[in-house]
User: Fold these one by one.
Assistant:
Number 1:
Amino acid sequence: MSLRGKTLFITGASRGIGLAIGLRAAKDGANVAIIAKTAEPNPKLPGTIFSAAKEIEEAGGKALPIQCDIRFEEQVAAAVAKTVETFGGIDILVNNASAISLTPTESTDMKRYDLMHGINTRGTFLCSKHCVPHLKKAAAAGGNAHVLNLSPPLNMETKWFAPHVAYTMAKFGMSMCVLGMAGEFKRDGVAFNALWPRTTIATAAIKNLLGGEQAMKGSRDPRIMGDAAYAIFTKNSREVTGNFFIDDEVLAAEGKTDLSEYNMVPGAALLPDFFVDPKKG
């Protein structure tokens, strides 16, 4: 199965994991709507919707850069309408945009709390709500309609909540959308799945907020998430839904077990990501 001619609506696609997913789809000749806030270059956050569009097109896809803050419904509705007007529909939604603040309860500023919940949980629900009518049309026409949330398995363990309750709630809200909407739209043939990395991924968040250059060295390249997402998108949406996938397990099921090519530093010890235990053996 190929993504040639399929249209992806990807939030947070100007850099990192969102861009990696778009680039992998672009290799097939997919259309990619790049939904993100960054339109002007920022030295701390490399990549804009326009630089991402250039990369998508150089990779073989068609790009539509749209500046959009997914906290605002009118902006999301306009972005969805523009995507449909440009490409004729939407086949895949990737809810990747996210905000993070690993603070304990007493030191969590409520503006930061609202930002995380506004982008992570509410933004995911909002984008899903506006894309679903078009995804249902794609499925009804015999297409392969997918929604993929970049969110963790619902491991309801104290150790994942206690250090940063607000952030965990916001990310698990995205996962609850998977759990509920997979059931809600199963009859329509629209798949809802989650994807999460086993290890940290070399993104701006890791570099700027979660450990700097040292943490980057113990991370994997975002390409692993692009390849894992592609493997999910090319499965039958009527058969593969309601799953909480981990990147290395997805690739192992495809026959790829040597993941060394994704290491930012060959042979470096990899750092486990939140919400999943390190792989044993």
Note: Residues 7-262 form a domain with the Rossmann fold fold (CATH 3.40.50.720).
Number 2:
Amino acid sequence: MKQRGRGGDRPLSRRPGAGEGAGPGASAAPARPKIDKASANDQALDAIIAADKAAALKLAPVSHETEARLDRYIALLREWQAKTNLIAPSTLPQLWTRHIADSLQLVDLAPSAKRWADLGSGGGFPGVVLACVMAGTPGASVHLVERIAKKAAFLREATRVTTSPGVVHLAEIGDNVDRITGPVDCVTARALAPLHQLIGFAEPLMRQGAKALFLKGQDVEAELTEAAKYWNIQPQLHQSRTGDGWIVELDAAERHS
């Protein structure tokens, strides 16, 4: 039976079925290029991080030398992050503003400090960032205290690739005084423990003359109220440049009798 096509009474042509040839000399349709979704995602993340870096360095400018060290640090962190959870994956797009600039702002609160101790360094915030800033400063050192072996290994590699004056201590946080030799100008901690516990960790160093700078979140008032149950303190609060958090500055702490 014939069907009427546009050209008159002639059979309509049909496409070859599966497995049928398209006729002599016919060439196969070109294959569609495969899209590497993982590569595309990496490139998109690279662009986002680059824009975030520009924003972060406006908030906390650094020298070209420090920027180069921070670039090497971030490259290493992204490499290790694939196998070791150093930071929350959701914060990767804001690496520079949420982590780097957040750490850099501490330098302005202790501009003369050269010897730092960072308790619970984790992925290196703020300790490795501070070490990158301190590189090239005579007599500078940053003690990085970390109790998890994998993270301590990362911190050692980070200080190596950035050629920064970081000294890694694989130890419980409360053991820091026995391991840190020499004077400390400033002791820091970020996302480690409630404030009253942080003061307990840092108090031996503060008793020897160290200033404490603790990065805290929005609930800082509640933490200060709780800390006052255990400690006589006169805190100074500094609002973070990078979000809704706060920095608690302490020059001394005395436990209630």
Note: The domain at 43-255 is CATH 3.40.50.150 (Rossmann fold).
Number 3:
Amino acid sequence: MGRLSWRWWSRNNKKSVNVPLASSENPEGADRRQLLQAFSAIAGSGALAVMSQPAGAKDASDLPPPKRALTGRNEAGKSVFKSFDVTTKVVEIDSNPGLTFYELYRTEGVPQLTGLEPDPMLNGTIGFPGPGGTMFRLISYPPKRPEGYKPPPGVTFESGLKEMSDKVPGMGDVFDRSAPGMHTSDTIDYGVVVRGEMTLELDDGQKVHLRQGDCIVQNGTRHRWRNPLSEPCLMAFVSIGGKRG
């Protein structure tokens, strides 16, 4: 009886790894050892590393916009899909090309959960929710700017913040004028890196490097984001409105 093998294909280099699992010539104990060796080889060959690598797209236009599945109930009380498409509220910031907000859903107070509520994004968006409210969004951050990059003609720091507040009401108001990029909101923010990588900076220059799948919890703290790569970074956030202690 011939030797059996597993063949595992790497998504990056397409090389196969052949690992013996069993043989009629080996005793049962050897078979078990070979099975353990198979799992070790899969891990050692970079399976986990491949899973954690960011997408290779170099431009946001290479990727389709994320879709949102919105559920509810019909007149009979049965759960239904109200839509499965790009959210009705997509905000592009012209003063910072590549910065895009996908405004997915928001609530104020205690949700009623009737399933008959209209899509709240049809009424526009907000920067951050009030106490007890929630805001769910995806943000696509542009790639790291090349050396010597200049913003579009006529764009200043103040005009950029004004555009942001005009399109996402109140968003520009939370930014620190003395330290570009630094901002603070009266929310707890749950965030996860969906695609790419991001650097999170706090006060006094404290930084942490986030990779795909890494998560953060912002407890109303002052911070800023910097994309360290030459590709866009997509992050998901759920913001919950709170009160300053």
Note: Residues 4-52 form one domain.
